[in-house]
Amino acid sequence: MIQLTHVSKQYDQRPALQDVTFEIGKGEFVLLMGPSGAGKSTLLRMLIGAERPDHGEIVVHQKNVTMLKPSDVPYLRRKVGTVFQDFRLLPKKSVFDNVALPLLVQGVSSVDIRRKVTEALRAVGVEHKRDQLPAGLSTGEQQRVCIARAIVNGPVVLLADEPTGNLDPSLTSEIIELFKLINARGTTVVVATHDPLVMAQVNRRVLTLSQGRLLPEQRVME
Amino acid sequence: MRTFSYLLRESWINMWTNRTTTLVAILTTTFTLACVGVFLLLYVNLRAAAGWLQDDIKIMVYLDERLGSDSVAGVEQHLRGDRAVASLLFISKEQALGEFKAQFPSESHLLDGLGQNPLPASFVVALSQAFRSPDAVKRWAERVRQVPGVAKVDYNQDWIDALATVVRSIELVAIGIGVILSAAAVTIIANTIRLTLFTRRDEIAILRLIGATTSFIRIPYLLEGAVLGALGSALSLVMLKVMYELFRQQMRTTGRFAGLENLMAFFPPSVCLALVAVGMGLGFAGSFVSIRRFGEAKA
Question: How close does chain B come to A36, measured CA to CA in Å?
Fold first, then answer.
């Protein structure tokens, strides 16, 4: 599902990623670990075509992201859901409208939007908050809405960048359980985090980045 | 359909959120386009006036003193056969004298002293529409001067030339001012849209991340620019119409120009619609300039 081959990237002579090569299969749940500045966010941004590597090749869902034309990037992003630490919800739109947005940009019919948004909100447990504005939600609820928006159009890959960075330990567990559930339905999940609590809760493959380099893989057992 | 209504709603939200900026942009565009409109209106009216005055221009073809009646008929036949001639009126020496006495009764004794009638017979010629330009009139007069029996061809060349120069000058000024002020309108709208884009940059970044195409992101801003331009243009026409009516009213009440107001005309509805469309186009262009700088899909 995701393939990186000898990917390197540097900003102002400072290496962000150095010769990174790995492969993630369909339906896998992978943790991308590493301290701040290790290159996790850069790597995730490359997977959605927001950054281009200086060297190497990236393939996501059989699309060579490195060769993608700017006009084709939106179509890649419709297949890849993204979850952020700061949620990035539109403050003046209701929960329903926020979650409906990815469907709206694809021209999905009103009937289907209503059905799919309701399903996504139910899946993350905030269906009862559908008419509220993001400011009226707790941080945990806002992250759930962000996840609902990321999964509403049935992406093949879900990328999460420090999704629990703003959450307390109990909410972190809930969000991780949610990711496991989404993964169990067949979606490939990649979670970038530096939080050991997340690693402790996930018995899955771990890719560790340190100063832009990929360290030998480890597997965390529950 | 839902997508389209979403885009329309977003345009409206953009304008409402930045309503002060929007209002200032519309009003500035209104005044800018009204300035262009004043020159355009002046140009249209002067051009029409030039047309009427040229319609009214008569060319006098004076005949040789010694010409017999057969030769006069020959000149008349020549003129009637000329496709440039729309109408023709013969004025005999006697008729010319009678007209002179009628127009200048106090000066008629001057001619009495000469013993014989010094005024020549003539044809008063009106040229057809296609031959009324200054150059065409000049060419025609030079040609007719060569006709045997014709002594002189007279018309007010200076008047025709001066009028044509004035109309051409106004046309150039209108084009020059139109281009400069249209560029100003584009800049005003471009800045308004840039401000909107700046205030909504986070939202635009989110739209990009969830797979919105560049055109999906751009359309609300292009619509907003077009609406600002169209509203500015429509309001400038309302403003011009009010000014135009006040001016006509003023002319009517001022005895000196009374009657002239009936010769003035405002833009016909088709031109008004075209001007609104031009305003819309300028707004669209202004918006396009701003959003182009926002680049392609980046997060």
Answer: 20
**Could you tell me the two tokens for B18?**
């930045």
Measured in angstroms, the CA of B194 and the nearest CA of chain A are apart by 20
Domain segments of chain B as ranges: 2-53+161-292, 58-155
Shortest distance, CA A221 to any CA of chain B (angstroms):
34
Please report the DSSP string for chain A in residue order.
-EEEEEEEEEETTEEEEEEEEEEE-TT-EEEEE--TTSSHHHHHHHHTTSS--SEEEEEETTEEGGG--GGGHHHHHTTEEEEETT----TTS-HHHHHHHHHHTTT--HHHHHHHHHHHHHHHT-GGGTTS-GGGS-HHHHHHHHHHHHHTT--SEEEEESTTTTS-HHHHHHHHHHHHHHHHTT-EEEEEE--HHHHHH--SEEEEEETTEEPPPEE---
Give B-chain residues touching A113 at CB under 8 angstroms: 2
CB A74 within 8 A of CB B297: yes
d(CA B96, CA A26): 108
Residues of chain A with Cβ-Cβ distance to B1 below 8 Å are: 110
DSSP state of B151: E
Is B213 within 8 Å of chain A by CB? yes
Does B3 contact A109 at a Cβ distance shorter than 8 Å?
no
pLDDT per position as a tens digit, B101-141: 887 777 767 766 666 778 888 999 988 878 877 788 888 98
Q: Do B299 and A48 touch (CB under 8 A)?
A: yes
Chain B hits for A48, Cβ within 8 Å: 209, 299
**B297 and A149: CB-CB below 8 Å?**
no
Q: Nearest by CB to B209, which of A82, A92, A108?
A: A82
B233-264 residue pLDDT tens: 999 999 999 999 988 888 878 766 666 667 78
Instruction: Quickly name the fold that domain B58-155 has.
Output: Alpha-Beta Plaits (3.30.70)
**If you count residue pairs, one on A and one on B, with CB atoms under 8 Å apart, how many are there?**
66
pTM (predicted TM-score):
0.68
Q: What are phi and psi of B284, to 5 degrees?
A: -60, -45
